[in-house]
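pinging the channel bc i need a second pair of eyes. not urgent but kinda urgent?? the chain im working w is below, pasted from the shared doc
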Amino acid sequence: MGKTSTVSSWLCCPCRCLFCGLLSCIFSVVATILVIAGVVVLALYLLFRPHLIQATIASADLADFTLTPSTWILRYNLSVALSVRNPNSRIAIHYQSVVAEAYYQGQSFARADHPDFYQDTGETTVVPLAFAGDHPLEGGVAAAGFRKEAIDHASFSVDIKLSAKMKLKVWAFRVPGPKPKVDCPLMLHRRNASASAPAGDGQPEFHPIECRVWF
C-alpha cells in the first residue's frame, strides 16, 4: 500500500503535470511552425520553379603560356568568354562581387574582377574575362606537369572558377540569394607563337565547354 501510494503521488504531482503540459505545448508549437514553413516553401517552389544558372565557356584564347626553367615563373595571357544564362521564368538575378580565378596544377595563378551585372528572366550574358601577367609555380610537381603537357600534346589543363553574390528579384521584391560557384575545366592549346603564322593557323577549333554550377 505504501509503495502504491507513493507512485500515485509522484504521478499526480502538480509541478510534474505543469512541466509535462508546458513541454507538450512547446512541441506542438514547434511542430506547427515546421509544418507551416514546409507548406510555404513547397508553395513557393511550385510557384517560381527555381533553377540553377547555366554557365558555358563560349570561347577561349591562350596567347601565351610559358614557364621559365630555372625560376618556374609562369607567364600567361588568357582571354575567356563565359556565357551565363538565367533559365528562370519568374526570377531575375543581380550578380555582385563577381570574381574569377584561373588555376593550373591546382594552383591559383591569376584573378580577374568583373563589374556587377543584372539578368532578367531567361536572359543570357557573356562575361569577358582576361588574365595576363606572371606568377610563380610552387613545387617541382607543377613544373614537371607543365613540361609533360607541353611535350605530349602542347595543350594545358586550366581551370576557370567564378564566384559571385546574388540578389534575386521576385516581382517587386529583392531578396538575398545563394552564392553560386562555377567551375570550368579547360584543355587549351597555346596559340602559335610564330609572328608569320596567320591567326588561328594550325589551332584546333574550340568547342563550347559546359561548366559545373553549385551553391
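so The longest strand covers residues 155-170. and The longest helix spans residues 14-48. — does that match what u expected or am i reading it wrong
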